[in-house]
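Running this now, will post back.
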Amino acid sequence: MKLDHLAIFLAFLYLQCYVWADSSSEEDSSSDEDQNEALLVEDPEFDLLIFTQRWPITACYEWREKSADHICGLPSAQNIWTIHGIWPTKLNTIGPSFCNKTAVFNVTELDPIEKQLEQFWINVEKNKPYDSLWRHEWLKHGTCAAAVMVQLNTEDKYFGQGLTWLQQHSMADVLGEGGIKPGQNYTVLEIRQVLIDRLQKNMAIECYHDKETKQQFLNEIRVCFNKNLELENCDGILFEDVFIDQPQGKIITNCNVNKPVFYPATVPLSRYEKTHMSPFDLHTKFLEEYKRQKAKENKNMKILVNIYKLIQLLKWSTM
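Update: finished.
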């Protein structure tokens, strides 16, 4: 009888290990990613600071496309670009990042500027804690800036500098003054020319590519600064370069220069909100869901068979 109990106990452990592994693979891994990357100690030296602004409308659309449960937090003011981060960067590579693995993020240090951050450094991904973006940016990028530059060696200085740069070089103002308005399509060259005319530097233009519609949306613009906090060309940052026959040299972008770039004025419907589907699309969706369900059932059946075999083997070995 004791051996029978042992067999059942071992089978139970086997099942628990399977359930734990299966469920953990489905959880959001963003916090684990931070913790794992934080174990990597890097040389904090860098060449440039990349100040990344993003269009919250596109950022929201990208977030909602990932899950039907995702909701967005958007700034109350319309037509403003928000801050993604300030990223110390070595030329022709990525990083450094997580330069102080013992660092902690203390949101109370941001009390004097928190109201401004809630508007201009907002976390569009509202399902997450309101300060999760600030925490991530400080631990991953801010610690590297702090290790090298006195001007950015505290949370208040680091995030405050971002607010200052946004006030000086807001993409809402830069693009608007150049005739680039939300709700229209533009070419990458038109957007780049406006940026060069107003800031006299080469910047990176980042698009979000909708895999279903094949449309590309204006998503982020990355402005570079040197260690004196002065505007600098972004040439040499690790990004996709598209060479064009113009006096300014090359354009730094992941956008397709042969297709229009949409600058949305409102958040488009996500694929989960598009209820009007053709019979063919409905049939395809049904088949895909059926296949996923059958694959899950087959996997569970194999687990049960293996548990049964294990119990029988243990019983046989004790006879």
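Confidence is low (pLDDT under 50) at residues 15-40. More later if anyone needs it.
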